[in-house]
Amino acid sequence: xxxxxxxxxxxxxxxxxxxxxxxxxxxxxxxxxxxxxxxxxxxxxxxxxxxxxxxxxxxxxxxxxxxxxxxxxxxxxxxxxxxxxxxxxxxxxxxxxxxxxxxxxxxxxxxxxxxxxxxxxxxxxxxxxxxxxxxxxxxxxxxxxxxxxxxxxxxxxxxxxxxxxxxxxxxxxxxxxxxxxxxxxxxxxxxxxxxxxxxxxxxxxxxxxxxxxxxxxxxxxxxxxxxxxxxxxxxxxxxxxxxxxxxxxxxxxxxxxxxxxxxxxxxxxxxxxxxxxxxxxxxxxxxxxxxxxxxxxxxxxxxxxxxxxxxxxxxxxxxxxxxxxxxxxxxxxxxxxxxxxxxxxxxxxxxxxxxxxxxxxxxxxxxxxxxxxxxxxxxxxxxxxxxxxxxxxxxxxxxxxxxxxxxxxxxxxxxxxxxxxxxxxxxxxxxxxxxxxxxxxxxxxxxxxxxxxxxxxxxxxxxxxxxxxxxxxxxxxxxxxxxxxxxxxxxxxxxxxxxxxxxxxxxxxxxxxxxxxxxxxxxxxxxxxxxxxxxxxxxxxxxxxxxxx
Length: 549
Description:
The protein is an alpha+beta fold. The chain is 35% helix and 16% strand. Strands 15-12-14-13-17-18-16 form a 7-stranded antiparallel β-sheet. It has a 5-stranded antiparallel β-sheet with strand order 5-6-10-8-9.
């Protein structure tokens, strides 16, 4: 029987009835007990919202059936990866779909074309271990690579330390096979390859018309920075990113799903663009006497074309030195007692070229008035040890002694490099005004912007510095940088999205997509608590009538 997709505000059938049907018809695990729901009510953020229940599909058929049952019950669905989000994207009052247990395989691999088709639940480190014998890797290397899944990274539009060279997920996803809200399937890929009359082609034509209708706003309001990960990529037909979404300039409808956080479709298979493993890497650790200089000099360092630039501040340095496992590694990287260091990596196939770049880094620092400030690390073992400290950054921050503990309540943002020092100075003033500090986890740079990961501060800050997120958004918008970056858009950032990127550019998409869809920005911007957002969250296919069983 054909009909409209249930409204997101429709009354959810009793949870016991939903659970009973899922148990009867699925082969995978169905978890509705309090302990399991409690486990899935949190992620790496400060938010906690109890889900309706949890489904762990055993097969692709299970996944499709679970969505159909949820649709019939009028229950919102929340696809979930490893739960490493610091912004609350993976918690909600919905039926959580966890693909990490069973849907985690490499389906296809083409070494010559440098592509792989994977299921959404595969862990990034597992994928790269599988690819290593072939001399390839997937280069969106986020710090949670040991836990995070490719499906979660796709929904998040994750970035990683080396996005300055390789880009974000949107630059490395070639296609997505997905399930839509009405149970239909669609393969999202290059528009010219979509068959006329196919589901994906109809969606592409509709989205193109929507984007054309708000083209002036997209050009005006979409920030021209690499690490823009909030909202929908409505600029896929007129790219506003400094790095083209596709190196050949082709239009790929899959890029609409990247960063949509499960609100448009649920991924079944994801086609990835792979990169050759660099044969040689060198690392230069630049020591700065002041935090301001580290921020200010970054704009000059990126001109040397490094593969990665990461900031580590004094708080992180001190905490690492207190850890016996990390102390010997950190001591080798320090000259005196710097207030901050920048990890600058060069990588490629020619070792001599990388060593020359390392010498250029030292020469640049001499020209900028900091001679003898660079510690050279040309050997792989010492580089790996230092990057391992970086990956442990969040755990190291949580080891802070005393009553004040880091709380991740300000979400990552991207700031143009020429404004970075001013931005961090103003934010630091706010924290000092309220009697606290803003120690940061390692912070990556992506030309022409830096992802300012000032997301950890004393535990009393959420009460005492309630206005600091809004002030942070104001400064970020004034420098033409987007609020959401790296960790995508969570509950806090959504409230400032209209001011930083132009909410009107996303609203036509929401209005034309049927009553059951809300954009990530527009839904969260109206919310006062996470619970209110999750009761309205769902997903739908753009502009197409659904079908109920």
